[in-house]
Predict the structure.
Amino acid sequence: MNSVITFEPVEHKYTNQHGDEYISVTTLIGKEMPFDSKAIAEKVSKIGSSRYHNMTTERILELWDASAEHGTVVHDMVEQYIKDDIVPSDPSLVPLLDQFKKLNFRGELLSEVLLWSDEHRIAGLADILEVFDDHIYLWDIKTSNRIGDDKMMKFSLQLGLYKNLIERQLNKPVIIGGVLWYSDFVLKRSKTKLKVFRTLECSDSVDDILQKRKKEITC
């Protein structure tokens, strides 16, 4: 029998009806591609072409933490619009929503869709599913300060894993639409520009991660 999964947002925990915990997709990717934030902050502060050039490590880490917090604001804005057609009361967010509307989606939009695999004991929340009769488009929202090769690979793996989970659960082919990036949201707020990025092909890497995870939980 399939599990019933619940998500606890404060501790960011996924559990089934028996109390068994499922690892999040982002945590699973983090195990494959560890991110040493302090070391990377020190590195980018010394690069002349970097927006963080000559900033202290502490300031860079503060900006990155703020990016994560502000990302929740943007996700909530999109979720409320999709589910209840709510326009944000914060005027600085209205231009962001207007840009989102201009993407001209044609399918039925679903937001914050809970996904999981009992076989691999992993779970996650898909930002946006655009559902058609015979297929689904998958979209992800990001507010990162930058999108370099390392982050694009992580985003690609994340969406690749979500694609796998959706196809298992809903039995429909999934097309990865891409990453919807509100660039420099922390620094620019209402002047943020929404950009669309296509993800990398990484189906073999996704299969490797799932095989490794299955061995891990059966040992």
